[in-house]
Every structure is written in C-alpha cells, then in structure tokens.
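Review box. Two proteins, two foldings.
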Amino acid sequence: MTKPLIFITGFIMICIIAVASWNTFETLWRINSKNSELSFMGSSGWQWHNKSQGLQIKRVDGYLPALRKVSESKEYASLVTVTEKGNYRGFVFFDQDCEEGAIVSEEVAYNDFEQPRLEVLHCLHGKLVYMKSWSAVPNERWRGRVGNFEFNEPLNEWDFTPLQQAYLKSVAELI
C-alpha cells in the first residue's frame, strides 16, 4: 500500500514542479519581452514612463525629452517630442530598412466623405518614418497609411505631463 502512495505523491510533486517551472518561465519571458521594447530597433537610453501603457521616456541633457510607444505588433514605434517653440512633433518609425533619403508616397482617403490626401514616408537613419506636427498637446487617435505601412496610435491616452513640464521649465524666467 505504501509503494503506490509513494508513486502517487512523487507524480503529484513532479506535476507541481512542472507547472511552477512553466509559470516562472512565462513570467520571465513576458518581463524580458517588455524590457526588450526599451531597445526596440537598436535605440538606447529609453526608460519606462508608464510600463502598463507601454509608454517610454528618453531624457538627454540639453534637449527636451521624448515619449514613445512600441506597437503591440512590434512593427513600428510612435514617438512624440516638444519643440523649443512649444509645438509637438510626432514620428512613427517603421522597422523596415530603406535607402537614406528615399521617399514613399501615396494618395490615401480614410473614408468615403473626404478627399484623398498625400501621405509620405521618409527614410531617416535607415528606417521609414511618418511625421506630423501639432500646435498643442495631441489628443487624438493618430492614424496613417502608406502602402503596406499602417499605424494607429491613441495619443489621447498618452500622459504628456513630462513633455509639458520640461517645456515650461525650459522657457521659465526668474523674476
């Protein structure tokens, strides 16, 4: 009677160890995957601003900070920064190699009610980039499409506080 009980106990222990090992592996893989976003497309210097939302921040001495988010598909990264004049600039970097200076363009209509508009991708630093500027904090869903390159980023969910604070600090005058 004790031999079957020992085998059953041993089998249960092996199952518990296997399940615990698998859960540990999955957790470590998710953490590593999330942290690999900080160096997406070979970029460096990024830190988590809001890890649950996937927002990253990069601060470089002498420059205003930038925010970015890597898409869930890992096909592109959206980046927003503020200029010295207080305008916001957005960039979408696609993980697609290209020849420096090349341009890809297409007339795109996003619905049946608007006129097609020219959408352009530029090749900067060997990657295809979509660019846009805003005079105030972007609070929209930013979408774009040029050929097979498409992005959709809810900027209205981003926390631009660090960019706003850095800009205000850069233009503040002592009185």
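Next protein.
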Amino acid sequence: MRNSRSDLRVPDAKADLYLIGLGIGGFDQRTVEVDHLLRGAAAVLHLTAFDPELREICSGQVEDLSGIYFCGKRAAEVYDAMAEHVMEVALANHVLGYSCFVTYGHPLFLVDTSWDLRRRTDLRVKPVAATSFVDQIMCDLEHRFDYGVQHYEANRFLRMSPRIDSRFPLIVSQVGEVGSDRIELRGRKLAWLTPLFEEVMEKYPNDRQCDLVFSAYRRDMAPKVSSATVGEIFTLASSVHVGTTLVVHGSESK
C-alpha cells in the first residue's frame, strides 16, 4: 500500500514491489515512469508476450510467468499461485532492490493477482497507472462513456443479473471467458455464449446497436470491431475470443 504522507508535495515513497501495467497497445505504450522502473528493477516478473523486449531493457532478473498461468488449473488457483510466486521472488531480491510484476493494460483493472499482492503486508506494494482497455475502446468506438456507463465482468454480470438502465451503454468485459472458471481454449462458442447473449436481449431493445471490440494489446495486432443489433447478437459469436469486450449502446450515450 502507499505510505501516508503528511506533506502532499513530497513524491510517493519508494516501494519494494511495483505493479506495472504496460498499457493496451503494445510494449511501446509503456509510460516514461514504467520504463524507468523496469530498467532499474532487481527482478521483473511478467505475464506478457514481451519477454525479449523486457530482457533487452531490464538490468535485473526477468521471468515469464506464462508457465504458471497456462497450467490448466482453475483461474482462482492460477492467480493465487502467481501472487505467491511474485511475492517469494520479491522477498528474495529485497536486499538487491525493488521488483516489478508486469501485465498488459492497467495493473489493477481485472488483474486479480495484483489485488492479492496489494493486500500483502510483507513488502511495500504500489501500482503504477497505465492505459486500460476501457480507455482504448473509447478511442476505438468514439463513444461517450463519460456521460454514464454500466460495466461488468462477463461472469459476474451473469451471476448477478443486475438491474440495467437501457438509456445508458453497457460494457461487458472478458466475454471470451464467460461460463468458465478455468484458463483454457474452448470450442462450441454458442453453447457458452447463449446465456450471456440472452441476458443482454432481455435488458435492451432488439434494435439497439452493440459492438464486439478487440483492443489490440500487442504491436503485431490490429484493433477490430464487429457490430450488430441486439436482435442479431448471435451473429457476433464467431468473433468472440479471449480479450473481447461487448458494448451495448445506450439511447442517451452520444
């Protein structure tokens, strides 16, 4: 957690473990602050496709966490295992300097491991802000979400079945992971997408536009937007994969 400061003019105290978001859009989207932290870290543990790039700029130890992430276990177990490993490495390197846990996008937005690490008291832990996928879809869609928006992670949206105000847009993130508590590739998309799509159809009129958005998180990817009306939402199923976001337009959102 950030240390309390009696004088707000003084910069934040240094941390032992930094939670780093590279931003949506690729390695080149990292901020100046993040670049500085990565270059000076004693250890950098990451869940990205940028292992070669990180090894090129980092002077300390670099470890790719994909081996832990893609182990086939339940998501909650995977996130816990990553948090334990990151904390173990950070503690081991404490005498040498600070460590960094690095992910795509924002360091806290939909990153359960980061929230777990923030609750730890073994070391001083501090997140460093970065561009999230929500920032990017505002640019991809040129849509006014700052006038009001309803946002849910896909599995939580299904479990809660929240009361929705159809005047305002709805953002449903991690559509490709709905209906599963495991980190894995799946087929038969219609089978696990049907409950989500039917929930949307109950809450919004059939003629309301909806977009399935893929915001590129690597430089070798391009953003993609597939659109349909709510009544035709099932035509979007073939475009769903990990990392996609469903946006349903509001009647008062422009």
